[in-house]
Amino acid sequence: MITTATRTFVRPVAARFAVRRFAAPAGSASLHTLPDLPYAYNALEPHIAEDIMKLHHQKHHQAYVTGLNAAEESYSKTSSPKDRIKLQAALKFNGGGHINHSLFWKNLAPANAGGGKLESGPLKSAIEADFGSVDAFIKKINSTTAAVQGSGWGWLGYNPDTKKLEVVTTPNQDPLLSHTPIIGIDIWEHAFYLQYKNVKADYLNAIWNVINWKEAESRFLEASKQ
Amino acid sequence: MAAAATGQHKLPDLPYPYDALEPFISRQIMELHHKKHHQTYVNALNAAEVAYAKASTPKERIALQQALKFNGGGHINHSLFWVNLAPAASEGKGSGGALKDGPLKSAIIETFGSFDSFKKEFNTTTAGIQGSGWGWLGVNPQTKRLEITTTANQDPLLTHAPVIGVDVWEHAFYLQYLNVKADYLNAIWNVINFDEAEKRYLEAVGK
């Protein structure tokens, strides 16, 4: 909850890559910033085109950051429950957009940085245990994600209650709350349309060449030790 | 859209060639939008209707509701959309974008103050959709007044009689306008078929 007596702007520079640390210290309104991509705009070619990466990062994600900052500022200026409830949609949409895209850039990687390569290890074993095989998992996440009716995200998530990996989706920019995100796939049309047009299935096949499995495993290890 | 026998819906032809709405909506978008996106809703609606006819329990039928709503709504919405667009009068190609004096124009001015105020409110509301959906000018069936409203995803407009619908799914504009939704929403008013809109308006208010 953001309450302000005086407002100080704390720029969470160290938090730019630590996507969990979005919370502002109590008593301040902090400006969220667009995280840099961990690779060049053309680094995911030919699987995700440079022009998509540029628009997606510099325009779409930036708009969520800008919108989130504006919504948080409005929220900090009011103490009325009704006004705050009115702001929830803007906070959820833009906050979710910022969270989801920040996770997304990090769970992609160029081939020369391990993109697309799932080594033997705890994540691979867990996928095989919970889905039968990596291929079966990919088939499931792709068909589930393709079936999102509108805009949204497909996720491999870790269910903290059952301790299992599950495929889930979220609509629009809703963040994944029911599971710990391991891999997220943006299925808003802006994520693929310039390159793949209406052929969503081709995008969903191609993206597995640039999934950052090392990041995914790191998230899995952190989630599964709790 | 006439009721069809189960699973017999067809993609309606466009009332104009694919390039007719240039330069406001590109030929490339119109082709994909009609031949791929709308066709997919038609195919999936037919499949869902066939499955529904075979279903024998309430639970099975309820399980099919989502497919019927999404694809049925997609078919309804896009069928309305093609007909409420027309080649631009400003390009000398047709009557698109030309709102003549008459009951619809009067109702817009009476309700919103001016056509420009209406357009501004419509575009702001439609651009504000958080995800995929449609912006609508509709007639409130109780008050018979014009109102601006939106529907999410492919939900059909049920609360109002549709007068004008604008698709803001990204596939409707992205290839031409990229992320600049506002430019698409400004441009589309050049190709809105106000003759069709007025016909719908008159039917909705019972004249």
From TrEMBL, chain A:
Cofactor(s) needed for function: Mn(2+)
Main enzyme class: oxidoreductase
Record-listed E.C. numbers: 1.15.1.1
GO MF annotations, alphabetized: manganese ion binding; superoxide dismutase activity
GO CC term, one of those recorded: mitochondrion
Entry annotated with the keyword Cell cycle: no
Keywords: Antioxidant, Manganese, Metal-binding, Oxidoreductase
Positions contributing to Mn(2+) binding: 56, 101, 186, 190
Role summary: Destroys radicals which are normally produced within the cells and which are toxic to biological systems.
Annotated protein name in UniProt: Superoxide dismutase
Organism encoding this protein: Neolentinus lepideus HHB14362 ss-1
Lineage: Eukaryota, Fungi, Dikarya, Basidiomycota, Agaricomycotina
TrEMBL record, chain B:
Keywords tagged on the record: Antioxidant, Manganese, Metal-binding, Oxidoreductase
Cellular component, GO annotation: mitochondrion
Claim: Oxidoreductase is one of the keywords in the record: yes
Reaction it catalyzes: 2 superoxide + 2 H(+) = H2O2 + O2
EC number: 1.15.1.1
Sequence intervals crossing the membrane: none
Entries under Pfam families matching the protein: Sod_Fe_C, Sod_Fe_N
InterPro entries linked: Fe/Mn_Superoxide_Dismutase, Mn/Fe_SOD, Mn/Fe_SOD_BS, Mn/Fe_SOD_C, Mn/Fe_SOD_N, Mn/Fe_SOD_N_sf, SOD_C_sf
Manganese/iron superoxide dismutase C-terminal domain segment(s): 101-200
Enzyme class: oxidoreductase
Binding positions (Mn(2+)): 33, 78, 167, 171
Limits of the Manganese/iron superoxide dismutase N-terminal domain: 8-86
GO molecular function, one term: manganese ion binding
Required co-factors: Mn(2+)
Highest taxon above the source species: Eukaryota
Function: Destroys radicals which are normally produced within the cells and which are toxic to biological systems.
Family: Belongs to the iron/manganese superoxide dismutase family.
Name listed for the protein in its UniProt record: Superoxide dismutase
Organism for this UniProt entry: Neolentinus lepideus HHB14362 ss-1
Highest classification ranks of the organism: Eukaryota, Fungi, Dikarya, Basidiomycota, Agaricomycotina
